[in-house]
Amino acid sequence: MQAKQQGVEAAEVVSLILEGMLHIPRPVRLKDLEKQTGMAAAKLHRYLVSMVRGGLITKSVDGSRYDFGLLAYRIGQSATHDHNSWELLQPFFEEFIGQLRHDDLGQAVGIGRWVGNGATMVKWFERDSPLSIRSNPGVQLGVTTSATAKLLAAYLPAEITQPLVVRELKERDAYSAAQVKKVFQEYDRIVQSGIAHSIGARRTGLNALSTPLFDSTGQVVAAITILGMAPHFNAQLDGPAAELLKTLGQQMSTRLGFHPG
């Protein structure tokens, strides 16, 4: 296991303060920021003084409230212009895949996105394994079979997804009004529970779980998917891998600025 690298505590405290400001209505009061961060008011005030001097935050004229400063906005604009936000999360996915030490929790983690008129995988993170189970990026996934595609389709308007569902069912010689209704009932369940699964849909014995990644506006920007091989990988919706994945999705969504409710 790689030793934890030493860092600078002050920088981590500044990050904690900025993160805290994202979670409460701005401009913020010192006592609200104290409650949000868990830091003592005296220590918090000293950091705020330096952050105001550096331009990360600004102080109201009466000195009672704080907001993001010009430097913080410039950083945000630069990051938005230069990157897709979810790409900045890749180191966290790499750290996450390192935690999957048992096959029952999965062997690969992927990021799926809705591109054009379908879902595809755009990035994979894999455990050290003699068996490669990931699919090639760019391959369009089935909106009635793939955990990733079902997850992404569930959050889209029906006028977009229904023609795709009908076409796919007809291609599988499984079309009926009842079957279409069943697909959309599953979509409703996915939105309510925040997770989708598939059992051997793409390849016998290959199972998957998928959960949404929300941005600051509440839009689903990607699906996070775990793959694993049966019988070891438990892809049940109430299993330990599902809970682990949902927690990851919530944490990563928070990092993108998403606030439930």
Q: How would you characterize this protein structure?
A:
- With 261 residues, this protein is α+β, with helices and mostly antiparallel strands.
- It has two domains: 9-80, Arc Repressor Mutant, subunit A (Orthogonal Bundle); 85-255, GAF domain (Beta-Lactamase, 2-Layer Sandwich).
- It has nine helices and nine strands.
- It has a six-stranded antiparallel beta sheet with strand order 6-5-4-9-8-7, sandwiched between helices. It has a three-stranded antiparallel beta sheet with strand order 1-3-2.
- Strand 4 and strand 5 (118-126) form a beta hairpin.
- Helix 6 (147-154) packs across helix 8 (177-193).
- The mean pLDDT is 84.
Q: What's the pLDDT, averaged over the residues?
A: 84
- Between the first and last Cα atoms, what is the distance in angstroms? 38 Å
CATH C-level class of the largest domain: Alpha Beta
CATH topology of the largest domain: Beta-Lactamase
CATH architecture of the largest domain: 2-Layer Sandwich
What is the number of beta strands? 9
| Count of discrete alpha- or pi-helical segments spanning 4 or more residues | 9
Strand content: 15-25%
The biggest sheet amounts to: 6 strands, antiparallel
Tally of domains: 2
**Would you list the SSEs in sequence order as H and E?**
HEHHEEHHEEEHHHEEEH
Helix content: 40-55%
Give, in spatial order, the strands making up the sheet with the most strands: 6-5-4-9-8-7
Structural class by SSE content: alpha+beta
Q: Which overall shape is indicated by the principal axes computed on the Cα atoms? A: elongated
Q: Low-confidence parts, pLDDT < 50 over ≥5 residues?
A: none
Could you tell me the radius of gyration in angstroms? 22 Å
CATH superfamily descriptor of the largest domain: GAF domain
